Predict the 3D structure of the following.
Amino acid sequence: MFRILKDLLRYNREFALGAILILLVVAMSLASFFSPYPSGLQYVAPFDVPPSWGHPFGTNSRGQDVFWELTFAIRNSLLFGITVALLSRLIALVVGLTSGYIGGVVDRILMSINDTFVVFPPFPILVLVYFIFKDHMSWALLAVAMASLGWPYDARLIRSVALSLRTREFTTQSIFSGMSTRQILIEEHLPYVLPIVFATTMNNINWSIGLEVTLSVIGFTNIETPTIGTMIYWANQHTALVAGVWWWIAFPVGLVIMTFIGLYLLSVSMNEYIDPRSRLSRMGGSA
Amino acid sequence: MHPSRRDNGSAGEPRPAPEGPPALSVDNLRAYYLMHYFGVEREVRAVDDISLVVRRNEIYGLAGESSCGKTTFLKTIAAAVRPPLTVVAGSVRYGFLDRDIYALSPAELSAIRWKHLSYITQGSMNVLNPVRRVRQSFIDFAYRHMRLHRRAFFAAVEQHLRRLHLAANVLDAYPHELSGGMKQRVTIALATICRPEFIIADEPTTALDVVVQKDVLAMIREAQQQIGSSMLFVTHDMTVHANIADRLGIMYAGRLVEEAPTAEIFTKPMHPYTAHLVASLPRIGEQSRKKSLSGAPPNLAAPPSGCRFHPRCPLTMDVCREASPALTTLAPGHRVACYAASPLVKPSATAERAAVPTPRAEPVGLVQ
Amino acid sequence: MSGDLLEAGHVTKSFAIGGLFGRGHFNAVDDVSFTVQAGRPEILAIIGESGSGKTTLARMILNTLAPTSGAIRFRGEELLEVRGRKRRLDFMRQVQPILQNPYEAFNPLRRVDRYLYASAVRLAGAQSQKARDEAVDAALQKVGLSLAEVKGRFPHELSGGQLQRTAIARALISSPALIVADEPVSMVDASLRMSIVNLFQRLRDELQVSILYITHDLATAYYISDRVIIMQKGKVVETGPAREVLIHPQHPYSILLKESVLSPDDVGRGRLTLEHDGEAMRLERIVR
């Protein structure tokens, strides 16, 4: 495993760059555990101090140190994004693999559901969810809602791979070896589907963080929890740019852009590595 | 239009060597796959020190099992070499060129392709454009080489098709409307229309049904005789070679182990591998027990030392493990690389190399 | 009737063709009937070219495709009645396939012994690791390989002949009564073919397994089969004992097939003549 990472770092510049960026982001989020200020507390620092030695990213109009607040923010945003991505991958995998493999009526039903979900515009639906659950709105609920909207595209991709795998001869051999459907899907077909899953995970993390930021900026999430989006929300509430407190907006935005670019580079570079055909060329065979 | 008997002349008898330079001359050719993939380095010696000569107006058959390197050999002959495949040593000279084919520029290469050097592949779908009619493929491949006006060009195409017993209306068909055998016949007509001096055939009948196979082989033979071109015919099926090749070369693990006129290969094989290939052919009417060879073809990334066949050979001696035998002429036109065949066979001077040879100048011939 | 291992009665399979306007259908398998007796293992060769329906017939016998009409019975039980996991497993214990392409028959990303172990567990009922190893090794020995050679290997590390023999070993683990071999040697090199073909003979003689040998190669069919069925465009054109049919074919298509077989005995004379030239031409029409 480590040899693989070492090889990737040495030979693939995109991976190296992506890895560095993400490591920085993760370091920032881990730094949150060392924060001298507890999360979310206000009026703990002087107002509107520009970036300086004592406050590397400055402080904001709520009396918070931007740097330490940002560490909490990026941690929460990342966790949220990863949760949504994992949940929706799970749904996409189950739906895609079973409908591609079993076919027939099951396939038609699942794909009808799939196509219905594709048509839903995520943003208005989430706004609607917020209005329905206003007071009981929590991050968990939001994560579940977003995961239910984020799986359809990828389910179709996975299904098309599963369709082609179904007709391959080793699938017949697996059936006649007595393997159960679940065993075949997980052990035989999953390795082929993994590259898609991996690439779409990174994209999904980007998408969900982006959507979370959008919702938070408008104020449709729990604004007391520090996330990238809520930081920007509060900055807007205090008209930061007009007041000249540019560091309140610049650093969160910069950090989230770094996250997006890092994840994208990682997914693109790892994809080539995980792809079955390139794995086989390295092992010496052919797919 | 269809004669009830077609006699395509006799194959397998050695013809007197015609005057002039050979159609193809390959000297000490080596082509390896050099792969560096995420830190893993592999060197697959697909073509390892092969020298052969194809005379004019003859069909030279190349036999050998899969992964013995014959497809790679074809690629190197056609200068269709692309990384990770690299030509490491040796030369490939055609009769119609004054230089090694690797000394040509890409423009010169594309000028000789199809006009002087054409190929027939295993799957005709690799050649015929599936979304255009057949006549478009003829235009794509042959039009600029023949330098005729459109009408004259198509008149020439139709005449060529007629001579090969194909209906002219096949030009208006789409490839998917034709059967497999028909497509292959069209491919052969396509490959021969510019009357090239050399044709490379890579398993052209392997994917075809039994009935069609014989017909297509007859057509290949007829086309070759009409044009007088030379052909390098590669297949693993020995009975096909028996019926079409004039001379036959047997390849094993990237090396040539025997070469002789076809009749001699079948009646007097001298190399144990050839003997096994010939003896294990099942025939209708014969039910005697056929023996099979133990072991498996070697991995070309880590071939056995010395003679590459020694792990599976029933006649292995000590010297076989140490040094690779040279391809030696033991009878007129008959070369063998086996110590057991004759004491005249000595270790090869060029076969072994200590370190990985450094690649020559960048391969110029790249397939488009 | 009840003593038959396999009985195919007027089996027909038709597929729909055509596009949006006007659908026709064609019969891939047309009214095929034959039986394989129990108690007397034999090798039955089904010979045909591409489009003859032999692979479709094989899939119906393996119960992966349902016939449009007619019935296939295995040991008296209709295949369409075999439903549910338990009955399917029972069926698979007795009828096993050998597929055409040994390189495709194994997942290139996974090790080869997985299928062997899975068969041992699910089909032969081996529970402990020791029992599994024993069952797998025994089967591999029958085909001339051993567990040491195959354990932990990926498909690309083995040759075509070894892979096909491993596939045969896997099929043997449950001690089946019938093996359906769909062109088992067409993708294997000529030099390795005989070892597999010889193996089929041993399976019939020593292990009492009946084999349905589906092929287009008349020479190997002559070499090992007891009976022969020749198919053309979905129909059975000739059937009978192998020596009789292949040496003295009666039906025009069988005669044409035999004539077209290339023989190494023609070397030196190399006559590529075709007696029934017109017939061959007619067999290939330009379809519009």
